[in-house]
Amino acid sequence: MLKTDTVSILLCTYNGEKYIREQLDSIINQTYPNWTLHISDDGSIDETLAIIHEYKEKLPAGKLIIYAGPRKGFASNFLSLIKNRDIQSNFYAFSDQDDIWLEHKLEKAIKAVQQTQKNSGGRYALYGGRTTLINNQKEVVGHSCRFKRAFKLENALLQSYSGGNTMLFNYALKEKIEQLPDNIPIVSHDWYLYIICSAFNGDVIYDDESQILYRQHENNIVGSNSDIKSKIERLKRLYQGQFAEWNKINEMSLDFYFKELPVENQKLLTRFFKCRGENIFGRMRSLIYCRVYRQSFIETVFFYFMNAFGKLF
After folding, report:
1. Does the pLDDT value for residue 222 go beyond 60?
2. How far apart are alpha carbons 165 and 97 in whole angstroms?
3. Which residues contact 296 (CB under 8 A, 6 or more apart)?
4. 186 & 109 share domain
5. What is the mean pLDDT of the chain?
């Protein structure tokens, strides 16, 4: 039996001693108090675990729970928390170890999901949004891009719409992810939730007002990719075959859920992945038929260019 309006915060750590206190403090200071913090540590060899245990002792019993991560990288660590059937609540929020949450983050996200589901009557819900970028001195250095195009499967096949550190989702979506077999990998936890939620025509909610301070530093596993240089470098890697590998991974998980999906999304996915076996003209026809896109027009054109030269699949 789920407790009313509870939220489980899923935080993954690895050698995060430098910044984790600030993140834990920002969670404790949330205006929404009905949360439980679940921390999966992926084998830290610094003082991260000692700091976590220190906070656990200060908090009420059962408020902070610690797990040993699978030690297979950040995506597998987050996935291990999502698929943990002992973690049950109405809502779930991802947390990185080095960010700082604004005090209304949880409250605003939960209200947005509740209102959207009240209006739509949908089963699955995923909330995400923009971030404020800060440096090591906590000085604001920028903001993540503001997206304006629709958030649906045609977009999700080519990109995630927000960082996992902003995301909050409901129990029904977690329950769906729990079904994924352990032998099927994922690229990243945030992109994967967007793909699955949109594939089932769930509610995808976008907050264009930042609710977190996203720290940019040399140890970031995934950076913001907000400046021109990083965008060019990222697109270069995608052209060299990285995205083709990601497509193969995404296709495996979507195949698992395929028969459950709405018919229109089955047709879309069939035509999208059919590009892999076609010649240049067939690939272009299929992608145009699918009408897939990225939030940036220029990046969308680049991906169609990649497809023409057989670099997308």
Report:
1. no
2. 9
3. 145
4. yes
5. 93
